[in-house]
Amino acid sequence: MQLSRCPLSLRPRSGEQVPPLAAQVARASNPGGTTAIWVRDRLDGLWCDEDFIDWYPRDGRPGLSPAQLATVCVLQFLLGLSDRQAAEAVRCRIDFKYAMAIELDDPGFHHSVPAVWTGWRDRAAARAWTR
Asked: What is the predicted pLDDT for the residue at 6?
């Protein structure tokens, strides 16, 4: 029996396309673009879930997409958002949904998730310096 290279707790989303309705509404409501739209359009493909495979255990409950967390961390830094504001933006802002390639009716992350981001950001920063 061959085990999948992908840990069970990580469900990779690489190659995820922006849902057509999210793209249409984001472009129509922000014809000049926003930082979130810029990040998606220019940095798409810079990271994918498989880049973070070693950070996830082989079993356990499904984790959030690390590529999406990376996108949120970049947007949070660029826009000077607190963890709570970043989580709210994912839940409420069309351009954030576009940047993360999620459906418009996606509820986003629970407000307690940003507390976990601190450790995740530390690992991402350490990894960035070793490349």
From this structure: 47
Outline where the chain has alpha helix (H): 20-29, 35-43, 66-79, 83-92, 94-100, 114-130
Among 4-18, 30-44, 52-66, the least confident range: 4-18
Res 1 pLDDT > 50: no
The pair of three-digit structure tokens given for residue 67, joined into one six-digit string: 């590529």
| Residue 120: Cβ-neighbour burial (10 angstroms; 0-12, 13-18, 19+) | buried
Average pLDDT of the segment spanning 37-56: 81
Burial of 101 from C-beta contacts in 10 A (0-12 / 13-18 / 19+): buried
Buried b (16+ CB within 10 A) or exposed e, 15-36: ebebbeebbebbeeeeeeebeb
Cα distance between the two ends of the chain = 34
Residue with tokens 């009716």: 105
Sign of CA dihedral 100, 116, 51, 13: negative
Q: Where are the alpha helices (DSSP H) in 10-65?
A: 20-29, 35-43
